[in-house]
C-alpha cells in the first residue's frame, strides 16, 4: 500500500492514537539508549540493535545481560526466546502486511503495538493503514529516541518515574479489550493470562507467553446462527 | 569481545527477522481456510492478552509492585467504559507515576 493511501485511509482519531504510542515508545527508546551506554556498552551496540533487531523487550534483555558481564551469545539466545511470539503474530497479520516485496519491510516492522492496532480495526484497508503507519512511526521514533538517549547518557534512565512501564500494558489492553468482549475469545485469553503469570517465576523470559497459547484449547469459533437454530 | 558482540547481534537480527517472516512466508504459499484464519486471529489476541498480564503484573521473575498494576487497572476500567485511547494511556502512566511520587513501589 503506497504511503499516500496509508494517510488517506487513517482517520484522524486513529492517527492521533498511533502518534501517542510512537511518542511513548520514543521515550522508552531514550531510556534504553541511556541505560545501555550507562551500563558501559559502546554507543553503536544499542543503536545497531535498534535498527537490525528492532524488538524492544529483546533489546533490553540483550544489553542487560551483556552489561552485567554475560556472554553476547547467551544474550542472543535470550533475545530470540522473547521474540518467538512474532511467529504467531506473523501468521495472524500476513494478509494485513500484503504480498510480494512488502513482506520484507512489513515483517521487520512487526511489533506488539502495531499488531494490536491492526487487530483492533474492522476492515482490511484500515488494518493495513494502522499496521504500516504504526510500524513506520514506531521505527522512526524508537531509533531517534535510542540515539538521543545514548548520546545524552544519564538524563533519563528510569522511565518508571513517568509511569511509562504502566503505559505499555495499558496500550495493549486498550487495543485488545474490544476483541475480549466476545466470550469465545475472552475465555482462552483469560486462561492464557493465568498460565503466563503462573509460569513467569520458573521459566526464562518469553517462554511463559508462548505456553499461554495453550489457552487456545478453550477456543470455540462462533457457530453460524443457522446451525444453532436447527 | 567486539567480534562476539557483532555475532550475537547479527544472529539475533537474522533470527528475529526469520521469526517475523515465517508467518507471511508460509501463508503466501498455502490457502488458509476461514476457520483456521479465525483461530490465528484468536491466537494473536490470546498472546497479546498474556503479554498484558505479564507486563502489567511481573518484573523479571517476580511481582511488579503496586504502582504499575494499579495504573494498568485504572486503564482497564477506563477502556472497558470506552474512554478515549489517549485518556486510557495517560491515566495509566499518571496513576503509576503519582503513586510512586507518594512512595508506593
TrEMBL record, chain A:
Family membership noted in the UniProt record: Belongs to the AzlC family.
Membrane-topology descriptor: Multi-pass membrane protein
InterPro entries: Brnchd-chn_aa_trnsp_permease
Name listed for the protein in its UniProt record: 4-azaleucine resistance transporter AzlC
Any Gene Ontology CC annotation: plasma membrane
Compartments, as annotated in UniProt: Cell membrane
UniProt keyword list: Cell membrane, Membrane, Transmembrane, Transmembrane helix, Transport
Transmembrane segments: 129-156, 162-180, 192-219
Pfam families in the cross-refs: AzlC
Keyword Transmembrane: yes
One GO-annotated biological process of the protein: L-valine transmembrane transport
Organism from which the protein derives: Kribbella kalugense
Transmembrane helix found in the keyword field: yes
TrEMBL record, chain B:
Pfam families: AzlD
Annotated transmembrane regions: 38-58, 85-103
Keywords: Membrane, Transmembrane, Transmembrane helix
Name by which UniProt lists this protein: Branched-subunit amino acid transport protein AzlD
Organism: Kribbella kalugense
